[in-house]
Amino acid sequence: MTDASAWDERYRATDLVWGAEPNRVFAATVAGLPAGRALDLACGEGRNAIWLAEQGWRVTAVDFSQVALERARGLAARRGVAIDVRSEDVRAWAPPRGAFDLVALLYLHLPSAELRHVHVRAAAAVAPGGTLIVLGHDRQNLDHGHGGPRDADRLLVPDLVAADVGDLEVVEAATITRAVASDPPATALDTLVRATRPR
């Protein structure tokens, strides 16, 4: 889905589509980074942005679904943290260059040509010494994993994501496995790319 109204309907249909806790892979990848300014692009209901705020980050959370952003505001208030929530379509919005110590782009699945532009702008927003984390369903998941989009053009490939990050230094670009809570238990394959901007 690439339409804001369709996402509004999806979020209205259930309470917290992906739960309130942060993505485990993302949390483990961020652990140890000094807290600073963070940008969560396509933040959904804000679970990762709110977790970052709880760790001391100053977070800007961006999404185009008004329902999701209202959920993010409410969840942040209940958890006693503040996040800066912005209504923007990441396909068109350019975050300020060099403004964030952490830029997170998690499970955004757009046609590859559109996603490439989002990756380029996300990388440009990373400050000197900062980190970009891109995490999403890997293309190999189509045949060997569980869940995720069924369109290969919307799935991630580590080397292709790494090629989008411009002058950042790629620290990690890999296909990783993730346990899925299902019956029977299943495994998903994700792309994880972590890149930093030299100081």
Describe this structure in a few short sentences:
Helix content is 31%, strand content 29%. It is of the alpha/beta class and 199 residues long. α4 links the parallel β2 and β3.
Number of helices: 7
Class from secondary-structure proportions: alpha/beta
Per DSSP E runs of 2 or more residues, the count of β-strands stands at: 7
Assign an overall shape.
globular
CATH topology: Rossmann fold
CATH superfamily: Vaccinia Virus protein VP39
Q: How many discrete domains?
A: 1
CATH architecture: 3-Layer(aba) Sandwich
Question: Rg to the nearest angstrom?
Answer: 16 Å
Poorly predicted ranges: none
- β-strand amount: 25-35%
| Cα separation of the termini | 38 Å
Order of helices and strands: HHEHEHEEHEHHEE
Tell me the strand order in the biggest sheet: 3-2-1-4-5-7-6
Name the CATH class: Alpha Beta
Describe the model.
The chain has one domain (4-129, 138-196): Vaccinia Virus protein VP39 (Rossmann fold, 3-Layer(aba) Sandwich), CATH 3.40.50.150. The protein is 31% helix and 29% strand. The chain is built from seven helices and seven strands, in the order ααβαβαββαβααββ.
Descriptive tags:
Rossmann fold; alpha/beta; single chain
Please outline the helices and strands.
Elements: H1 4-12, H2 24-30, E1 37-41, H3 47-54, E2 58-63, H4 66-79, E3 84-87, E4 100-106, H5 112-124, E5 126-137, H6 141-144, H7 158-163, E6 169-180, E7 186-196
